[in-house]
């Protein structure tokens, strides 16, 4: 049984706690959060504290706090030579305090407390400063997920960058689509089947092959019509730049 202390009570700590609770191989022995009220939603059976002096003995301490606070929180630990990991995609492992053994346990998914997640499908990216700790993190990852990968801090930075583009940027484009429809009192629901199909398509096709639309076809007339529709819109530049990027990706721009 791997004993875990969770530090933080946000989206990631909440979902990790559920996943560890559902596994036979793991036990969350304590949850720490600087604001006690915010841990009230966690299971009653788990010990809760907001004091660094009261941290329990565990095999792994998982810091799931805001990126900017990871370093400071790890410095606040009164423990020594324990395995302390963070859950961030963009924070280097070396950011953790030297007082303890370091590691990373980064679940590559977008988490919100209100949305259920199936952890078995979520890639868990692990890294550790010591070989035996890496092995333990792999075992921990496998107890909740079918996909555990060893990724170093440099690789993780690149992975996080890609994740932001395919998740946050794409979601922003949904917002742009929604705003444009709203101007004509049209419902965003009309776009949902298209959004779903676009997302599902990359299960069987690489993104390069899955691309369709006026830019991919180099359909200049339609592109001009769209730019005209957007002539007074803040999104005109975005449309032009995205179109140009697609033309460049398919080497269409160079031939014009
Ligand atoms: N959300 C995601 O989709 C996602 C996915 C993968 C990885 N991550 C990573 O997981 C980590 C946690 O993200 P999250 O989304 O769970 O965060 P979150 O929901 O915003 O929760 C932040 C947590 O950090 C605590 N905190 C903030 N500043 C602190 C400080 N100065 N000292 C002590 N505790 C502090 C907060 O405590 P209070 O309750 O007291 O405010 C809260 O428990 C981050 O490193 C993030 O990059 C997030």
How would you describe what is shown here?
- The chain is an alpha/beta fold.
- The protein folds into two domains: 2-151, NAD(P)-binding Rossmann-like Domain (Rossmann fold); 156-255, Orthogonal Bundle (N-(1-d-carboxylethyl)-l-norvaline Dehydrogenase, domain 2), CATH 1.10.1040.20.
- The chain is built from nine helices and eight strands.
- The chain has helices spanning 11-22, 70-76, 131-142, 153-182, 192-201, 207-210, 214-217, 220-229, 236-249; strands at residues 2-7, 26-32, 47-49, 60-63, 83-86, 101-107, 124-128, 148-150.
- The structure holds NADP nicotinamide-adenine-dinucleotide phosphate.
Topology, pairings included?
Elements: E1 2-7, H1 11-22, E2 26-32, E3 47-49, E4 60-63, H2 70-76, E5 83-86, E6 101-107, E7 124-128, H3 131-142, E8 148-150, H4 153-182, H5 192-201, H6 207-210, H7 214-217, H8 220-229, H9 236-249
Parallel strand pairs: 1-2, 1-4, 2-3, 4-5, 5-6, 7-8
Antiparallel strand pairs: 6-7
This protein binds NADP nicotinamide-adenine-dinucleotide phosphate.
Coarse structural class:
alpha/beta
Radius of gyration: 23 Å
N-end to C-end Cα span: 64 Å
The outline comes out as elongated
User: How much beta, percentage-wise?
Assistant: 15-25%
Q: Would you identify the regions where 5 or more consecutive residues have pLDDT less than 50?
A: none
Task: Give the helix level as a range of percent.
Answer: 40-55%
Bound molecules: NADP nicotinamide-adenine-dinucleotide phosphate
CATH class call of the largest domain: Alpha Beta
Count the domains: 2
Largest sheet: 8 strands, mixed
Treating each run of at least 4 consecutive H or I residues as one helix, how many helices? 9
Strand order of the largest sheet: 3-2-1-4-5-6-7-8
């Amino acid at each position: 049984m791997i004993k875990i202390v969770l530090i933080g009570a946000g989206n990631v700590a909440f979902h990790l706690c559920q996943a560890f609770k559902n596994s036979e191989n793991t036990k969350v022995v304590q949850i720490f959060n600087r604001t006690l009220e915010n841990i009230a939603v966690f299971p009653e059976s788990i010990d809760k504290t907001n004091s660094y002096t009261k941290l329990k003995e565990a095999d792994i301490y998982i810091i799931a706090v805001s990126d900017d606070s990871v370093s400071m929180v790890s410095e606040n630990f009164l423990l020594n030579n324990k395995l302390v990991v963070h859950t961030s995609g963009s924070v280097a492992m070396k950011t953790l305090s030297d007082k303890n053994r370091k590691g990373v346990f980064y679940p590559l998914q977008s988490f919100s407390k209100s949305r259920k997640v199936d952890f078995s499908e979520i890639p868990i990216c692990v890294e550790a400063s010591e070989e035996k700790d890496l092995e333990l993190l792999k075992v921990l990852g496998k107890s909740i997920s079918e996909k555990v990968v060893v990724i170093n801090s440099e690789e993780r930075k690149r992975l996080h960058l890609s994740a932001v583009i395919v998740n946050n940027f794409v979601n922003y484009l949904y917002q742009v689509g929604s705003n444009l429809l709203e101007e004509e009192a049209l419902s965003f629901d009309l776009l949902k089947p298209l959004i779903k199909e676009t997302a599902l398509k990359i299960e069987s096709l690489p993104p390069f092959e899955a691309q369709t639309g006026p830019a991919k076809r180099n359909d200049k007339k339609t592109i001009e019509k769209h730019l005209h529709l957007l002539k007074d819109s803040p999104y005109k530049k975005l449309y032009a730049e995205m179109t140009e990027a697609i033309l460049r990706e398919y080497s269409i721009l160079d031939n014009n």
